[in-house]
Amino acid sequence: MSDTSRHSAPAPGLSNPGGQTPANGPTGADRVRQVVVLLGALLAVAGAALGSGAGGGQPVSEAADGALSADATIVAPGSPAFTIWTVIYVGLVLFAVVQALPGRADDARLRATAWWVLASMLLNAAWIGVVQAGWLWGSVAVIACLVAVLSVLLVRLVRLAPSRRLDMIVTDVTVGLYLGWVCVATLANTAAALAVSEVGGLGLGPSGWGAVLVVLGALVAVAVALFGARRPSITIPVGLAAGWGIAWIAVARVQGPLVDETVAVVATVAAVLAAATPVVLALRR
């Protein structure tokens, strides 16, 4: 093999993502995307932080008459679980900065995902606004849209290999944590809306539905791990974030006013399943 062919060979799993043809260079649309996503991300994260009470306003846990507090429903995570948002917000800002770097303008993977990441941030900010207004069923609709957007991102990131390790970290890890946490939050959000609507036990009772929901959350993480097994950089963060949220549901059911041993035990097992499955699959590969 000649020196030229040796040095031009793509790095395994990083270059020529997904068998794509090389980009033809940055366009005006690429430059616009970089600027809009950067500025939009900064504004969306700042707005979400202020709307969550960081600036002295009403915390989300106190909005809607406390419907989303740690003891509002049988599947509400304990308050410390929400510290994961700090990690997610930092990751989102880092993503926005990295995608705006000059060498990333024509990156095929960023072209395919940057607008979707911005859409997810705007939906998150919208969710906080809807909750602060007390519209719980509206918040369920918004968070369902957020899950859909993050699912599109998951599919695109699994199909397209990263060209740089830094981009892989700030994109895959951030989106993975984001998706894993929002899946658990969706269960808690829906349970809160049902509780406020006073729908009753629906045949299974609180403990039964609590157990079903935490198992469902774990199965989502397992499904993601199976679908994206070739991208453990995404699936492991999804599992860790989902496991983190479910584990804090277990903690909240043994500490505090809303104790439920059945949900606590099932949630503990579900948390281990969610966190361990993508790691085991990655090690097997």
Overall description:
- This protein is mainly alpha-helical and 285 residues long.
- It has one domain.
- It has helices at 3-8, 28-51, 84-99, 108-132, 136-159, 165-196, 205-227, 232-254, 261-284.
- α6 runs parallel beside α8 (232-254), α7 (205-227) packs parallel to α9 (261-284) and α8 (232-254) packs antiparallel against α9 (261-284).
- The longest helix has 32 residues, at 165-196.
- It is globular and about 60 Å long.
- The two termini are 30 Å apart.
Question: TL;DR of this structure?
Answer:
The chain is mostly helical. The protein is built from nine helices and no strands.
Present the secondary structure layout.
Elements: H1 3-8, H2 28-51, H3 84-99, H4 108-132, H5 136-159, H6 165-196, H7 205-227, H8 232-254, H9 261-284
Helix pairs in contact: 2-3, 2-4, 3-6, 4-5, 5-6, 6-7, 6-8, 7-8, 7-9, 8-9
Keywords: Membrane, Transmembrane, Transmembrane helix
Transmembrane segments: 35-54, 74-98, 110-129, 135-155, 175-196, 208-227, 234-251, 263-283
Protein name: TspO and MBR related proteins
What labels would you give this structure?
285 residues; 9 helices; mainly alpha; disordered N terminus
- Tally the helices: 9
Order of helices and strands: HHHHHHHHH
Number of domains: 1
Strand content: under 5%
What share of residues is helical? Answer: 55-70%
Radius of gyration from the alpha-carbon trace, in angstroms: 20 Å
List unreliable stretches of 5+ residues: 1-13, 15-22
The counted number of beta strands is 0
What does the average pLDDT come to? 88
**What is the terminal-to-terminal distance?**
30 Å
CA-based shape = globular
Q: Report the sheet with the most strands, covering strand number, pairing sense and barrel closure.
A: none
- Strand-pairing-aware structural class: mainly alpha
Protein name: TspO and MBR related proteins
Region (Disordered): 1-27
Organism: Isoptericola hypogeus
Keywords: Membrane, Transmembrane, Transmembrane helix
